[in-house]
Amino acid sequence: MILLAASLAATPSPAEARRELRDAMPAEPVPAASEDLQGYIALALAAHPAVRAAFARWEAAVHRIARAAALPEPTVQLGTFVRSVETRVGPQQARISVQQAFPWPSRPARAGDAAAAEAEAARLDLEATALALAAEVEVADWNLWELRATRELHAEHLVVLDSLAATARGRLEVGAADLARLQQLELARARLDDSIATLTSRIAAAEVALRTLVPGAPDTLPTPDEPVLVEPDALPADLQAHPAARAAAARAGASLAAERTAAADRLPSFTVGADWILTGATGTMPDAGKDAVVAGVGVRVPLWQGAHAETLDAQRAETRAREADVERRLLDLERAAATERLAALDAARRVRTLEATLLPVAEAAFEALLGELAAGTGGVADVLLAQRDLLDLRVDLVRARADHVRALARLAVAIGSPP
Question: Which residues contact 340 (CB under 8 A, 6 or more apart)?
Fold first, then answer.
């Protein structure tokens, strides 16, 4: 309950909410297409439907505040006497009645607080949507980089196999090699060529995925530079500043305000009104034809306290549910942050291990086997196996680098920091 009260106290007033909305209204045109990651993110935040929808929901929630905090509409009634009542000053012909209801003084304020808290939750949802979309764009960009870099590695190894196959054909012509060696090389080349074709299809799909996230992206999507290892910072001690957690807390605060509104509904409300009775001008009395005016007050008596109590209990249960949602969201963020930080650290470890240990050994072994094959003392099968191991390790290095930056992007979402 303390957390809910603090969240409600931090909710902007209706005037502040409207001012924030006006300041956030997009006044600039959509930025021009940029061929780097930050440009992609700017384009996505400016034009992606998810951001526009979240902004529109915030705008709608802000506009609901005034109606929630307003008094009930006044009532104007017009009645005519079907059978006129004759008085000493003349017959009564019609009556005009005006009434204004006034709920218990705290009710409009509490209802306005609930609407303002919902508007604040919608604003924070917009922040969380922007964070998630920026990370999604970054992940999609690095997916494309990984596939392109992997295809380049396959193409490089295809050149090596072509050279080996050419050498084998020359030796076969002079009888220094057998047909089986050449067939082994041709099979390895065909398989590598098929892998390149598969990667080309996956690259096309990755480009489509990136374009769907970045409306207005340039026709050519350049490959970003090779990612750099970054040591992820220690996780924040408190994730309650995360937009998603604050949005959940704001909704819990809105529920608490709605609970107070339901409690105010159990108290009396008042009505102030006036009746103007139109009187016909007949007779010779001094006040003949003079209209009558009646002022009155009324009280709405909340007799059905049992029904009001049920409504209040239901709202209290809703408040408890939303408070539990805040705790669940914090736990989800904590788990996601820890998971992505460990993933980033593990990917960085894999990169260092591949660069420092595994790749140098594999390259040395491949070069040695190539030398033996050239000298006629080595076999094609051994060279192909070493070449396959070397290609796999180079692909693993590319994947590890991409895993590292992708984990960092998802970590930024989990801790509420822009990637």
Answer: 407, 408, 410, 411, 414
- Predicted confidence band at 377 (pLDDT cuts at 50, 70, 90)? low
Evaluate whether 206 touches 147 at the Cβ level (below 8 Å): yes
Amino acid (1-letter code) at residue 147: L
Residue 27 has pLDDT above 60, yes or no: no
Contacts 24+ apart (CB under 8 A), 207-213: 207/144, 209/140, 209/143, 210/40, 210/137, 210/140, 210/141, 210/143, 210/144, 213/40, 213/44, 213/48, 213/133, 213/136, 213/137, 213/140
Q: Which residues contact residue 171 at a Cβ distance below 8 angstroms, ignoring those fewer than 6 apart?
A: 177
Residues forming a β-bridge with 400: none
Model pTM greater than 0.70?
yes
Backbone angles phi, psi at 214, to 5 degrees: -120, 85
Cα(108)–Cα(103) distance, rounded to whole angstroms?
7
At residue 321 the predicted structure's pLDDT band, cuts being 50, 70 and 90, is very high
* CA proximity to 342, closest of 331, 350, 354: 350
Question: What stretches of 214-293 show up as alpha helix (H) in DSSP?
Answer: 243-264
Closest to 413 measured CA to CA, from 42, 125, 132: 132
User: Which one-letter DSSP state was computed for residue 240?
Assistant: T
Three-state DSSP state, 419: coil
Decide: 274 and 293 in contact? Cβ < 8 Å: yes
- The DSSP 8-state label assigned to residue 288 in this structure reads T
Rounded-to-integer distance, Cα 404 and Cα 142, Å: 10
Q: Is 90 exposed, middle or buried (0-12, 13-18, 19+ CB in 10 A)?
A: buried
Q: How far apart are CA 405 and CA 419, in angstroms?
A: 10
Q: How far apart are CA 17 and CA 364, in angstroms?
A: 65
pLDDT score for 2:
44
Alpha-carbon distance 254 to 234, whole Å?
33
Sheet holding 90-102, edge to edge: 75-87, 90-102, 269-279, 292-300
For 37-80, the DSSP string reads HHHHHHHHHHH-HHHHHHHHHHHHHHHHHHHHHSPPPPEEEEEE
Does residue 7 contact residue 249 with C-beta atoms inside 8 Å?
yes
